[in-house]
Recover the amino acids of this structure.
């Protein structure tokens, strides 16, 4: 009996769909009808029919999982390994200001080193496949003075906050429903009037 291949044995996650196709072939060899196989595995008869046609044409190996279609990678395995080494050295080592790799920067490195054009929007997919996570540069002024900022928060802000608490009165744009400006139209209060038609 076939069982799903384990992750430890193959280095890949088990593919239950492949197991189901191979199990259908086994049941067919044991004399089951396609209708019985479909009912037992919870699939349509059409699916079982397609699997059997594939197995008759190419043997049971034709039922194995097929890799998803797609174009060949633009970078070879050696180029991807070299790119990882370049990225590990940091953006500053390649001549960029700061040590953050952004998609446009990585796209530029790939174009200059390997002569391959990648759209910056696609570079993030490549980086994710290589095990790198997305980075965003921190946008701060280069003149930023951390000591002055701390001083402002500890000395100036408490005084401003205290002054705000002492302030009394309302702003001119009060939104209280019973305010004088709204009583005329609301139908409440001594001066309730009808809206002119």
């Amino acid at each position: 009996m076939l069982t799903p291949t384990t992750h430890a044995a193959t280095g890949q996650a088990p593919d239950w769909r492949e197991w189901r196709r191979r199990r259908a072939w086994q049941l067919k060899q044991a004399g089951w009808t396609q209708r019985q196989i479909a009912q037992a595995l919870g699939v349509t008869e059409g699916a079982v029919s397609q699997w059997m046609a594939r197995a008759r044409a190419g043997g049971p190996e034709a039922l194995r999982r097929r890799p998803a279609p797609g174009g060949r990678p633009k970078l070879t395995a050696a180029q991807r390994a070299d790119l990882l080494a370049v990225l590990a050295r940091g953006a500053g080592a390649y001549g960029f200001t700061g040590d953050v790799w952004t998609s446009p920067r990585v796209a530029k490195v790939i174009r200059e080193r390997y002569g391959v054009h990648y759209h910056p929007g696609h570079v993030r997919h490549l980086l994710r496949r290589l095990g790198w996570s997305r980075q965003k540069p921190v946008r701060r002024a280069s003149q930023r003075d951390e000591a002055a900022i701390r001083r402002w928060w500890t000395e100036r802000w408490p005084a401003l906050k205290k002054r705000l608490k002492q302030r009394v009165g309302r702003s001119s744009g009060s939104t209280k429903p019973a305010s004088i400006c709204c009583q005329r139209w609301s139908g409440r209060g001594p001066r309730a009037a009808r809206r002119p038609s």
Notes: The mean pLDDT is 79.
